[in-house]
């Protein structure tokens, strides 16, 4: 995956970088990975395609760079005062984000689809989700400090258990009610965590 964005260039280069990566996500959300081309990104961003090819190389590198930049946002997990309600809020946020009809929802859904078509997109998505899990660990760490869950509870596994049913409805069964599923999944995950079911690392990690 490209590390071009880590150089943090300034001036015109920075503006062009932002325009290209924003256009990449907009084209992905609007047309999907199959129709994502450097030419379309160039037309939308106003940056010449030769410049894009020279810096990023192609579509996969563009997409990886765009997702990498998206990983640098200021998002933080909810803090509602209890593990169950924090997990429920997380699940509801996932459901709302993917179900929305705006550009953000389209981009999020198209990114999941792209991960099945492009190894570079899959790698970028894994990195993005790892970072999100790292941030979400705070909801479990707070619960541990409050004494809601045992010391040594695997925060990432608790979060996975809480949001997995939401992703299942969104992308596997294609059922409605992903938001409603978040409440039950949060309750089950929180109760299991309190019972010590998520202490230590899972097999195979």
From TrEMBL:
What InterPro entries does the annotation carry?
A: Homeodomain-like_sf, HTH-type_TetR-like_transc_reg, HTH_TetR, Tet_transcr_reg_TetR-rel_C_sf, TetR_C
Residues covered by the HTH tetR-type domain: 14-74
Q: Does the keyword Acetylation apply?
A: no
Q: Which PROSITE patterns match?
A: HTH_TETR_2 (PS50977)
Known Pfam families for this protein?
TetR_C_11, TetR_N
Q: Which UniProt keywords apply?
A: DNA-binding, Transcription, Transcription regulation
Residues within the DNA-binding region(s): 37-56
Identification of the protein by name: TetR/AcrR family transcriptional regulator
Which species is listed as the source?
A: Nocardiopsis endophytica
Taxonomic classification: Bacteria, Bacillati, Actinomycetota, Actinomycetes, Streptosporangiales
